Amino acid sequence: MSDIVSPKQAALALGVSEASVKRWCDRGLLATVRTAGGHRRIATSEVLRFAREGGNALVRPELLGMPSSTKAGPVANERALADAHEALRDGDEERLIALVAHLYASGRSATDVCERVLAPALHELGLSWEHGALEVYEERRACELVQAALHRLAQLLPTPPRGAPRALGGTLDGDPYTLSSAMCALALRELGHRVDNLGSGLPAEQFARAIAKHRPKLVWLSVSGALDEPGLARALRTIADAARRVGAALVLGGRGLPQAGPRIPGARRCERLSDLALASRGPRGSSRAARSRARTI
Ligand code: B12
User: Fold this and answer.
1) Can you give the C-alpha Rg of the chain in angstroms?
2) Residue 70 counted as domain residue
């Protein structure tokens, strides 16, 4: 995918005149950069943002490196989930990537695509594996495909500005799951953070060092593997202390967190990726339902 396009390419993709695009650039409606020769250039993600926010379907999506199916408009979630499941089962990377790009271009958030399409498709694969209908290699291949789809979604998001708040996170030592944390990273990126995903299987002391060095505003931790409870509590306290020292919010989530604890002062427990929006903003102005989903523990 080309990262930047000319006003002419943007105009063809949007189905408007080049003069309109230039006017929108000059009025600041479309963020523009200038080449050394003074010509306007627009980031592909910016053209997409403009189309999504204005509710305008792309007329020639392929000019922005998007699948031509984007022209067909929104897809029902059930259909998207079935498509994703088939693409993952068949190892069809091209189909999965075209699907997520289409969903994003037709107005859904990257977070929503993760939460309502990719994660449920993985859950279905897990059930197939449990019932012996899927080989282990097929499951691993599916994880690689999801990683590639997340990468593609990240490319479509606008780049956060230099002074944007920083978020940092990952999974702990003994927890091999990578995708939930990668989805947290994408969701926070979509909320406008600069993100450092430290990946999976990291000792708590390493998190503490990274927090002290990079001074993030938010630290997320995804717990998906079966970790022993006393060890988990110790690790979380180490990370909570490090977060408190730099004034960072600590957000915990994942299916591996024990139902009833551990109690970590100052940490917030979230169930859904979409709860990160609330957690990164603080408790004010939130609905009661959202508050109870993102509770302080
Ligand atoms: C892929 C996979 C693996 C891969 C992961 C590879 C990788 N690169 O990540 C590997 C090979 C490591 C693996 C290993 C095992 N797995 Co496995 N795995 C899966 C599978 C198919 C998908 C997991 C996944 O990534 N899902 C996608 C993520 C994004 O979804 P999620 O975890 O639900 O997270 C969502 C929320 O919880 C939330 N969230 C998560 N973290 C956070 C954090 C924050 C801050 C917030 C706000 C939100 C949030 O947002 C996410 C998106 O909605 C699941 C099936 C399933 N139900 O998910 C089985 C599954 C989890 N595995 C299972 C099993 C049994 C195992 C093994 C024991 C197999 C074995 N015999 O070795 C090992 C255990 C490993 C360990 N040490 O814990 C079982 C667990 C059963 C149980 N009751 O615990 C499952 C459910 C499959 C099944 N149906 O039987 N697995």
Assistant:
1) 21
2) no
Residue 71 Cα, ligand 1 centroid: separation in angstroms?
Answer: 34
Residues 182, 132, single domain; the answer is: no
Domain that holds residue 115: 77-156
CA-CA-CA-CA torsion sign (203, 208, 214, 219):
positive
Please indicate, yes or no, if residue 161 is contained in any of the structural domains.
no
Question: What percent of the chain is helix, strand and coil (3-state, nearest 5)?
Answer: 55, 10, 35
Verify whether ligand 1 is closer than 6 Å to residue 255 (CB atom): yes
Residue closest via CA to ligand 1's atom 9 equals 177
Q: What are the pLDDT digits (tens) for 118-152?
A: 999 999 999 999 999 999 999 999 999 999 999 99
Atom of ligand 1 nearest to the CA of 115: 53
Q: For residue 121, what are the contacts with CB-CB under 8 A and spacing of at least 6?
A: 81, 84, 85, 88
Query: Total structural domains in the chain?
Result: 3
Looking at the domain assignment, is residue 179 inside a domain?
yes
Q: What is the pLDDT of residues 242-281, one digit of tens each?
A: 999 999 999 999 999 988 777 888 899 999 999 998 888 7
From the CA of 177, give the closest atom in ligand 1.
9
- One domain for residues 187 and 266: yes
110 and 186 Cβ atoms separated by less than 8 Å = yes
Instruction: Measure 156 CA to ligand 1 centroid, in angstroms.
Output: 26
